[in-house]
Structure formats: structure tokens, C-alpha cells
Design goal:
This protein has about 250 residues and is of the alpha/beta class. It has 8 helices and 7 strands, in the order βαβαβαβαβααβααβ.
Length: about 250
Amino acid sequence: MKSDSATPLAGRIALVTGATRGIGEAIAVGLAKAGAHVIALGRTQGALEALDDTIFAATGEHATLVPLDLREADGLDQLAAALQARFGKLDILVGAAGVLGALTPVGHLDPKGWDMIMATNLTANWRLIRAMDPLLRRADAGRAIFITSSVAKSHRAFWGGYAASKAGLEAIVGCYNDEMENTTVRALCVDPGAMRTRMRAGAFPGEDPLSVPAPDTLAPLIVELARADREPPRGVVVFKARGQESASIG
């Protein structure tokens, strides 16, 4: 399929994690509208089917649905093998899945809670890069995009677990991008700022959700960063919208 201004990602294969709600869902729909074939990864079959209904209504095309918990390491390796057999490449990888964990003093963090945050926000994304790297290299312009947060650098009180996981994510993605310098693969993180998500509602229960942007406002930026005909910036891209505050979570 030939791309045009309305579908700049036509013919591209895009894997999106955390695709059944919030930012991940908005990105999956946005990529599909831009012409990409979306491989949607989420934990719940019903939620994946609802996403597919949305994508089909908007584009007339179905997504590929993958019910999988990112913390199942063997599952990611099996998924990579399946994608290799079916598509032979991966043009776009978006790591949007994440958990907030407990907002508590560092000394009060429960070890099991810490392990859960790190397993989801950091280790799973490393495993994702490890599994999908060969497929991204087979694309003519592989793009790996991960969702981070400003708290990775602001070191805000009570956000230790989440902040540490996002700081680690930024480090891994930055190192991977540097390693890809002599290839056509590019990797970066996007800080979406304050977004109207369930995760943010849990962190800021008294906030008026209508005071922050909806996740679909982020989708055009992700589409732009995923384009094969443009070189994305290095490091962290910060999305800003009117009314955003400095402390942001995905």
C-alpha cells in the first residue's frame, strides 16, 4: 500500500503494548488511522476485541490481537517468532504499557510492589527490545518508541518506584538508540505530560479530569515520530499541551 498525506504509515507494521486503554489505546487507533497494521498487545481478550471494533470502524481494517501479559518473558520471544513468520519485520514498536505502583516513601515500598513495578515498566520493555530488535533491523526504518514520565528526572517525593522504573527505561532506550547509530533503527522516549488516564486519576483523585488533555491528543506526535521518511530526535521528546503541569505520568 502506498502512503499519502492522510496515511503516512501505510504498509507499516506496528506493535503496541498496553493497547487496550489510555495512552496505548489512543496510540493504537492513531497508528491504524495513519495506515499502519496494528498488532495490539494487552492482557484481556475482551478489551482487545473492543479495540479491534474501534479500529475497524475507523479504518475498515482489523488489528492483530495478542492477549499476553508483558511479564511473561517466554511469551515475548514466542511473539517475536510469530511476527517473523508472518511479517518478516517490524516497522514500529510502541511500549505504552505501565503501572504506577504505590505512592509511598522509599523506605515504605513493599518488595513485592517494587518487583511488580520494575517487572512491568523496566524489565518487560528490555525484554521487548531484546525480542524485537532483529525484526526492527529488518525494516527499512525501524522505530522504537517508549512512554516515560517527567518524574524520571524530577525525583518527586513518594514516587520512588515509578520514577526509578522510568529513569531505568530512559537509560536502556538511550543506550539502545546509541547502539543503533549505524543502522536504520531509531529508539526514543516520549513524555506525554498530564493525560486523562485511569492511572493519573489514581495518582490525583481530586483533579478534574477535563483539566488535562485526552490521550488521543498525543497520537499525532507518535505518528510523526514513527514515520520512515523523517529522522526522529534523540533522547526524550516532551509533549506539551495547554494546562499541563510539570509532574506527569503515563
